[in-house]
User: Which sequence fits this backbone?
């Protein structure tokens, strides 16, 4: 589901009673279209006559952009409520998600079976990128088939696995050529790495740009050397 104002307002009252002893005052709630966060809470600061800093104008925005399980939206609402609760209490946490925050989060998770985390600010998109964008070393086989198709295979980086894969694929009789490359281009993170004699078919022109900075590996050379 996507978060709606009605849903967020209902959950805010429900969780205020359930997890915060009803101690949170009404806080303006908004639905945003943000793609950079799931939930965000804000306040403003002012200095009182005695020089003390006062926080005020609290608000919570929940992104309505993402299609998420209901419980994940609920956990996001509670996460933002914890921030507001700490700010309103006037206590100072050790960091944005410091000791006070974690203690409350863990208590609520334990007592109410929730799965609130401190990493909620990452959106599904960001999480996917975090997994996919890390450069990792890969050995990639580019397999050309007699019928004109091209396949990609990510292999474990051992001479034995490469030699065996090459032999198996060439023996299939369906293949005209196999080239091996060493690359840490994260584009290849999406392919499962195994020794199985299979490929994932892709258009050649889609694959080649990702191999531009790759180093060719001569697998035959490995096997001759051993
Ligand atoms: Zn937070």
Assistant:
């Amino acid at each position: 589901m996507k978060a709606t104002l009605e849903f967020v307002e209902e959950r805010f009252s429900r969780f205020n009673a359930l997890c915060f002893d009803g101690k949170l005052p009404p806080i303006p709630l908004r639905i945003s279209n943000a793609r950079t966060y799931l939930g965000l809470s804000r306040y403003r600061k002012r200095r009182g006559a005695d020089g003390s800093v006062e926080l005020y104008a609290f608000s919570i925005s929940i992104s309505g952009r993402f299609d998420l399980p209901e419980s994940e939206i609920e956990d996001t609402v509670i996460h933002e409520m914890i921030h507001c609760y700490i700010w309103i209490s006037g206590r100072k946490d050790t960091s944005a998600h410091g000791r006070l925050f974690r203690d409350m989060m863990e208590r609520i998770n334990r007592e109410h079976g929730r799965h609130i985390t401190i990493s909620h600010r990452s959106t599904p998109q960001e999480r996917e990128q975090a997994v996919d964008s890390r450069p990792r070393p890969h050995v990639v086989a580019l397999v050309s088939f007699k019928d004109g198709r091209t396949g990609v295979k990510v292999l474990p980086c051992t001479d034995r696995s490469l030699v065996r894969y090459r032999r198996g694929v060439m023996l299939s009789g369906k293949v005209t050529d196999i080239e091996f490359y060493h690359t840490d281009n994260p584009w290849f993170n999406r392919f499962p790495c195994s020794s199985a004699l299979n490929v994932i078919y892709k258009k050649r022109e889609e694959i080649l740009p990702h191999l531009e900075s790759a180093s060719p590996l001569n697998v035959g050379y490995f096997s001759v050397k051993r």
Remarks:
- Confidence is low (pLDDT under 50) at residues 221-226.
